[in-house]
Design a protein that fits this description.
six-stranded parallel β-sheet; two-stranded parallel sheet; binds flavin mononucleotide; Rossmann fold; 254 residues; alpha/beta; Alpha-Beta Plaits
Length: 254
């Protein structure tokens, strides 16, 4: 079974590739959070998690999902994390999260994929050339990840911690999660055409339509920025630094 979360489609692409190659069932975490969250694995079946790296760690939604998850007959656990650059101590954060359930994480892979974070100065989507290069490299890397899971490799982590992982994951991440993940800074500009695409695209159904069909953001936000990237009029902004930034959706799943 492969559980996944994705905002702009990179992790969805990875989860779909993985599940198709392994013949595993695919489940979208936000949808599963609305159900009983109780599962039983078949003998020898792998329990996989695919998610984007947020602030050099596991997204809070994924941590919450794992906390609430109840799975019987777990024998092999792995994760696959997609990122724009590097993942800091995501491996440690993920492993601790599954250890609190009494499971051991056997394998982890980080995948560098096109950038989706645009909310702070210095961050923007990749150029089309870089995006293409990352997507091609990810497709190659996927073969290695599938092989490693098929072989049930244990204690195998092919990850991209980058520079200063402790500082990023232990100092910046808590600050980021506390102050920079709120949905409050979302707004639409006068370019909004009231098409409702952001409403339909939000993976948590956290955006509703006002009487004039313009978006209204509520509090249950994963911070994935899908609404920003999906807007055909590029009318959604987040805070003060997204003006003039690009948009990105994984072209292989969107
Ligand atoms: C809120 C947020 C935080 C992010 N933090 C990181 C990060 O710490 N390191 C990194 O390399 N990429 C980071 N990214 C980029 C994403 O991890 C990357 O683009 C990922 O592949 C997006 O996956 P998705 O398309 O499945 O949503 C961040 C993106 C968002 C939206």
């Amino acid at each position: 079974m492969v559980f996944y979360f994705s905002g702009t489609g990179n992790s969805e692409w990875a989860a779909r590739e993985l599940a198709a190659s392994l013949g595993d069932e695919l489940r979208f975490m936000p949808d599963e959070l609305c159900g009983s969250m109780e599962y039983t694995m078949q003998d020898g079946e792998c329990l996989g998690f695919v998610f984007p790296c947020y602030a050099w760690g596991v997204p809070l939604l994924v941590e919450n999902f794992i906390r609430r998850l109840s799975v019987r007959n777990v024998s092999y656990v792995y994760y696959l994390c997609t990122c724009g650059d590097d993942t800091g101590m995501t491996k440690e954060i993920f492993c601790r999260s599954v250890e609190s359930k009494g499971w051991q994480c056997n394998l982890g892979f980080d995948f560098q994929m096109p950038e989706s974070y645009i909310s702070l100065p210095g961050f923007d989507v990749d150029s089309k050339e870089k995006e293409g290069m990352k997507l091609r490299a990810a497709a190659e890397r996927m073969k290695q990840a599938v092989d490693a899971v098929r072989q049930r490799k244990c204690g195998f982590f092919d990850i991209l911690p980058g520079a200063f992982p402790w500082l990023k994951s232990r100092v910046v991440r808590p600050f980021f999660n506390r102050f920079l993940m709120s949905p409050k800074p979302f707004r639409y500009t006068d370019k909004c055409i009231a098409c409702g695409k952001c409403v339909a695209a939000c993976p948590l159904h956290n955006i509703s339509s006002a009487d004039d069909k313009r978006p209204v953001w509520h509090d249950n936000c994963a911070g994935c920025l899908r609404c920003y990237h999906v807007c055909p009029a590029h009318a959604i902004q987040y805070g003060w630094f997204t003006r003039g930034k690009g948009q990105y959706l994984n072209p292989l799943v969107n």
